[in-house]
Amino acid sequence: MQVNTQNSETYQEWLLKSYIDQMSQTHTNTALSWRRLYLSRAKLKAISRTSALLSGFAMVAMVEISIDNDAPGGNGTEANGGEKASSEAGVPELLLIVFAICTTLLVSVHLLALMISTCILPNMEAISNVHSVQAVNESPHEEMRLCVEVAWVCSTGIGILLFLAEIAILSWVKFYRLSKNAAIASTAIVIPAGIMFIVFSLVFYKRLMAHKYQSHSERLRQLDDLARELHTNDDGIHIV
Amino acid sequence: MQVNTQNSETYQEWLLKSYIDQMSQTHTNTALSWRRLYLSRAKLKAISRTSALLSGFAMVAMVEISIDNDAPGGNGTEANGGEKASSEAGVPELLLIVFAICTTLLVSVHLLALMISTCILPNMEAISNVHSVQAVNESPHEEMRLCVEVAWVCSTGIGILLFLAEIAILSWVKFYRLSKNAAIASTAIVIPAGIMFIVFSLVFYKRLMAHKYQSHSERLRQLDDLARELHTNDDGIHIV
Amino acid sequence: MQVNTQNSETYQEWLLKSYIDQMSQTHTNTALSWRRLYLSRAKLKAISRTSALLSGFAMVAMVEISIDNDAPGGNGTEANGGEKASSEAGVPELLLIVFAICTTLLVSVHLLALMISTCILPNMEAISNVHSVQAVNESPHEEMRLCVEVAWVCSTGIGILLFLAEIAILSWVKFYRLSKNAAIASTAIVIPAGIMFIVFSLVFYKRLMAHKYQSHSERLRQLDDLARELHTNDDGIHIV
Amino acid sequence: MQVNTQNSETYQEWLLKSYIDQMSQTHTNTALSWRRLYLSRAKLKAISRTSALLSGFAMVAMVEISIDNDAPGGNGTEANGGEKASSEAGVPELLLIVFAICTTLLVSVHLLALMISTCILPNMEAISNVHSVQAVNESPHEEMRLCVEVAWVCSTGIGILLFLAEIAILSWVKFYRLSKNAAIASTAIVIPAGIMFIVFSLVFYKRLMAHKYQSHSERLRQLDDLARELHTNDDGIHIV
Amino acid sequence: MQVNTQNSETYQEWLLKSYIDQMSQTHTNTALSWRRLYLSRAKLKAISRTSALLSGFAMVAMVEISIDNDAPGGNGTEANGGEKASSEAGVPELLLIVFAICTTLLVSVHLLALMISTCILPNMEAISNVHSVQAVNESPHEEMRLCVEVAWVCSTGIGILLFLAEIAILSWVKFYRLSKNAAIASTAIVIPAGIMFIVFSLVFYKRLMAHKYQSHSERLRQLDDLARELHTNDDGIHIV
Amino acid sequence: MQVNTQNSETYQEWLLKSYIDQMSQTHTNTALSWRRLYLSRAKLKAISRTSALLSGFAMVAMVEISIDNDAPGGNGTEANGGEKASSEAGVPELLLIVFAICTTLLVSVHLLALMISTCILPNMEAISNVHSVQAVNESPHEEMRLCVEVAWVCSTGIGILLFLAEIAILSWVKFYRLSKNAAIASTAIVIPAGIMFIVFSLVFYKRLMAHKYQSHSERLRQLDDLARELHTNDDGIHIV
Asked: Where would one find coiled-coil regions in this protein (chains A, B, C, D, E, F) (predicted)?
């Protein structure tokens, strides 16, 4: 690049700089958009795997444990005559209601996360396979961000806490007639575990936010340095 | 490119422009066709995974829960003498009919989606492996679009709603004799969950449509800008 | 390419054209062969996945449901004394025969498809991994085409229809003593589903054939245009 | 390549040809070795998948069906007093022996195939990951060829036939007391299926051999043509 | 690079060296960061696989074994009248409490590991897909290091030891009434196995640390050599 | 490369040769190290797959078969009064002890292999993802070699033999009361199968060693030829 006079130089430099600014701005936006696309895709994949696994376990537990609970209750009914008597002698009704609510909620929450994942993921996969950088702008992942976050919280947050609760309730249903102490011991372990889950979630969220803030501010500082450097070069010797 | 007179220039430019138009048109069509191919392929893959999972759960639930329901009923029959008496004392017939209908429908819907996926997917995979850009025109995915959409709605839409209904019916069958309140509680959770599923479907559909409309109109605007720019260049200095 | 006289030109052109013809012919044949290889491979993979899944479900259903059916029947036998009496009081023998036939047929058909897939697939995988274009000619997929089609029809066509029938029979076996209406309702859903499966198969086959015919005729038309164009160029100015 | 006199030319040509011969010979041998490596690897992978699946089914069937068969037998024993009486009244001992033999054989055969696959596969995977063409010569797949073929026949040949036999025996064990006709019907389907399996194996083997012979003879013919062509070129104009 | 005088040379060399130092420093840091990213990602993947597997087994064991333990206990209760009597006659309450604690702890520990893996993995996957070397600096894996290590120890360390303990307790629950010697034999195998696990962990940790120390000190030595070499070159002939 | 006098030539050649020697030595060592890394990685992957599968089957067999064995035994206890009486009338205690030992050993061995695989594999995966050839030197796979071999022998050698033994013991437990002949027949098949496993292991080991010896000696011969060739070139015309 041959530069003749200071004025034209400044003008050309301004052109170049504004062009670079715009380009890098566009480029940065596109790169950020791709990163968000990859993050959403990875989240949805993790959701679909975790939710399929946990809802499967919940289903199996419901079908299998109900058999067990039903069988002696049924025999008891025939021996004792009345249904209410059997359910009073066996597992109390409240426990069954809580068990039914927890299992249904657990399966529903994971199914919702699974459905969101199944709906949005193909649109992202299709964009990821296209080898054009600009294709990311036609991906609906920015509009669907809220949905992805909802699915994420459903599957990882609420879903795993409900699963922990399910285990405690399940051991109550199992051990109610044999040994209440076993059920109490099981509950005594699940409660601190649940608290640890929530603590980890908060720590994870805080660190992620702190990390994002830090990398943003660092990038800003870098841009600032770059701007100052370019400014300094304007006044002195031009090294391009 | 050396340009001598305005006339020949215009003619050559017209040639070039029309060629570029045609090329970019063809290119855009091909690119769009590939994107639709990738989208259909990703959908069919998601369908095959989800449908295999859910129909498997439904099968297991049917086989396992029927055992349970049958066992005490069978013992009761022998004790009480008649079959009708047993089914009246136990689970009412209407519930069994609804359960049979829901399970059969669920498995059929997912099997249909699975079959469509198994039929069409290999044809797309074969095209995707060929490293020729024009190969997309020989893919049958445009003709099969309706089938893919039917499989998609069967698997993700109807299939997941039926699965939710199945859970409610299943808990009715399980808890009918032990505690009707547990079954009612389970149903009370499934109904709002079902409504949330439908709401999410509509929101997803609306956003997807809005996104498609927006990206289409933006592309049109870009083409318009390009056309105007080319037009301006015709009258002034030619920068090619 | 500098051309001096019309005669030598025509001769050279003829050479070039015949060479290109031959090359493109060979190339087209090789490309078509690769595409058929990819299609067969994708089909065999889909077969092996679907067949393993469905034969697994059928196996589990047979083992599990037989337990259930056997258990009360066994108790009934001991109480009532004779075997025939038990099978008459319980599930009729004809139903059991149909159930045994359907399950055995289902598992056999899927095992046959699985075996064909396991035999042929490795030969194709080995060819696909070799990075030589001509390697496709040493792949046995053209000779094995009939086998692939047989496995395909066994797994996707007959296999899925048999699976639907299996569900209907299974619900008859399950609900026979509890509620014949539930079994009838289940059958009433399976029959239209089966018809829809056959209709989809025919639509899919027709569309695939129409698509193949169309893309073949279009390719012929293109070759025709190319030939005419080359012919025209012979007489006029040569633009190569 | 500048050629001065006929003599030196012939000598140089001879050098070149012998070099090309050697190179292509080496290259062809290496390429063939790679292809055999890929084929063995693909076979071992297919073996490990199929054997894990089928041995799993056999294990589950043995554990589950034994429960079922054992339960009423056990009750019968207590009611009737003696063990022999129970096994005579129930399933005959010969059937149990055949069932035990078939299941053990099935699991052993698939375990053997699985073990061979687990032993040899890592050595091949390690070679495949090395990006050196000559690495194939250090792969032990040529020495292990017999083992791979044994595993292949164990898993695909004997293994699937034994699995078919297992289904027939299993339905005999299940339906023996309920309905002998169902077991007979099941056997009547398994026998022609087994014959079809053997026929397919023979057809597959014959076609594969025919294909190999054909592609070998074609390659020989091509080499012959090449040799004749090179010979002709020696006498006439040299086009290199 | 032509060098004229000693002074300018020294200055330029100093510039170059400091630049190279800085570059290689940055490069080394980035490379190390990538390596740590890959290591964390591989660990989290292994965690998610192992934890899903083992927590699944624990769940199934709890549901299935409880059925078994509950069934005869239930029958015993009805026969003997009181609940305490049954649990005293059958499995002692302490064993049930230990069993409940171990199972709940096992599932909680693996769920915690699974949750950490599901939370952090998508952020790393998104970074890994971006083809920019500097992207690693925006990955939160350095901040999340402690979490990854906690998940790692939970899943591989505590998780597998608890699983071993679970097997011993499980065989106590199973064989308590049939044969206490079988349970003792089982425990006698689990204890040395547990010791071997801990020994392996320590050996593995020590070797890993020794390896890290060795490769660090070797790298330091290499840098030292490089520095000395550069120093020597400064005084003598410059070979760049 | 222009060579003037014999002496300097010799010196330069010596330099070049020693450099090439060193390079090729380093290169060969690095390549060998990578190959060992890939081999260890492939082994660990195979271990983790096989061990997860077989320990899963063993767990399921233990849980399921214990139910079956426990149930009639439990009923028998109540009928006959004493525990010892029941276990003497049913399955002898020795068999239960052997069964408990075999199952615990089987699960422990596979868990150990799984744990070693889970610990070492991530460190190798992280190295494999780094695209630097020298990175292999920082992989701990040479130090961990013994661990990998232990895991390998545990999983493939001892693990599969124990699994075979488990099947024999399992059929003894199952068929003990129904038909001792079935258990004897099952054992009669397992014993030759076990012998075949050991024979295959020895054949495999011998062939692998022979292959390694052969490829080592061949490489030595090649190096020898190369050295002699370079030596010959020193004395004659230099063709570089």
From this structure: none
